[in-house]
Design a protein that fits this description.
With 342 residues, the protein is an alpha/beta fold. The protein has a single domain (5-11, 58-341), classed as Metal-dependent hydrolases (TIM Barrel), CATH 3.20.20.140. It is built from 12 helices and 13 strands. It has a 5-stranded parallel β-sheet. A hairpin with a 2-residue loop joins strand 2 (30-35) and strand 3. GO terms for molecular function: aminocarboxymuconate-semialdehyde decarboxylase activity.
């Protein structure tokens, strides 16, 4: 029987300190309860996002998982809490609160959850320190990072040591869009989510390749949210650019050569797009992800995979769960055996 692992889900502690009051900056996200089962995430006095208790309650999540057929969720922070703009020590405090909460949730329900951490990437030394704590003290299985850090793309030399340590310590990275490019042109229609985020993700993936990060760290494992955004579809154009502008090259081979350790979640809503993703990168590099518990999420998780009948049983089983465990360097047999016993 297949095991369904939802790689892309977000969580936040029910109680987070009021850093606006503590540090005197209105940019900090705060959680204002609207009822026992809901709250608003507030940023600078405005509602950033309305959320329900699904976003903090593991018990509520497990109810949903059981109803929707999900065996395991991979928990990651909500990107608005990255706080890359803040002073590094303050952002480290925010990171620790979330990482501790995620680790505690996993410890409470080890057969249902796997945890990813967050680090304050505005300071490489501090981010490496927290990544080390996440891996070796908290037992988290990877790190979620944003697509840019205060407007710096991921190939900026400031982040080289972070990527070096992530490769050395075998820490897989989940790249999630935030602070999207062109936001000033997307005030209407929620285009920031539907147009900006896919474009932002493509820029992050292209930066890692064209900037030479992946050539320098060939064993670094990276997964991109939302099916990689528009990256899979512009990759041939990136190759063409590499061909015609040799003076701009920072890699010895064209961009498409460097995608072997790129993974993509399946959240592109379309069987046609999913098939393209699999044809382009191989079925072993696609993981099921739903974006639980937010409005754009896929319900039920894995629907696009279920709606792609051309997948062989082996491919389907891999994309629905086994690939995520591989990406996170988890012993599949041990985990699945423990889940059967429970």
């Amino acid at each position: 029987m297949e095991t369904r692992v939802d790689f892309h889900t977000h969580i936040i502690p029910e109680e987070i300190p009021d850093f606006v009051e503590k540090f005197g900056d209105g940019k900090w996200p705060t959680l204002e309860k609207t009822c026992s089962c809901g709250a608003n995430i507030m940023v600078e006095g405005k509602v950033f996002r309305e959320v329900t208790d699904q976003v903090w309650s593991p018990e509520k999540r497990i109810e949903d998982m059981d109803r929707e057929g999900v065996d395991i969720q991979v928990l990651s922070p909500i990107p608005v809490t990255f706080s890359y703009w803040a002073e590094a020590g303050q952002a480290e405090e925010m990171s620790k609160i979330q990482n501790d909460f995620i680790a505690q949730t996993v410890q409470q329900y080890p057969d249902r959850f796997i945890g990813l951490g967050t680090v304050p990437l505005q300071d490489t030394e501090v981010s490496i320190r927290e990544m080390e704590r996440c891996k070796y003290e908290l037992g988290l299985k990877g790190i979620e990072i944003g697509t840019n850090i205060n407007g710096k793309n991921l190939d900026d030399p400031a982040f080289t040591e972070f990527f070096k340590k992530a490769e050395e310590w075998e820490v897989p990275l989940f790249v999630h869009p935030w602070e999207t490019l062109g936001r000033e042109r997307m005030p209407r229609h929620n285009f920031m989510y539907t147009v900006g985020m896919p474009s932002e993700t493509a820029l992050a993936a292209a930066s890692l390749i064209n900037g030479g990060v992946i050539e320098k760290f060939p064993d670094l494992k990276v997964c991109f949210a939302h099916g990689g955004g528009s990256f899979p579809y512009i990759l041939p154009r990136l190759d063409q650019g590499w061909e015609v502008w040799p003076d701009l090259r920072k890699t010895s081979k064209p961009p498409s050569h460097y995608t072997k350790n790129f993974y993509f979640d399946s959240l592109n809503y379309s069987p046609q797009n999913l098939k393209y993703l699999i044809e382009k990168f191989g079925y072993t590099n696609v993981v099921m992800g739903s974006d639980y518990p937010f409005l754009l999420r896929e319900i039920p998780p894995g629907k696009v995979i279920d709606d792609t009948p051309e997948l062989a049983d082996e491919e389907r089983e891999a994309v629905l769960g086994l690939n995520a465990l591989d990406f996170l360097n988890i012993d599949k047999e041990a985990l699945l055996h423990a889940n059967k016993k429970s």
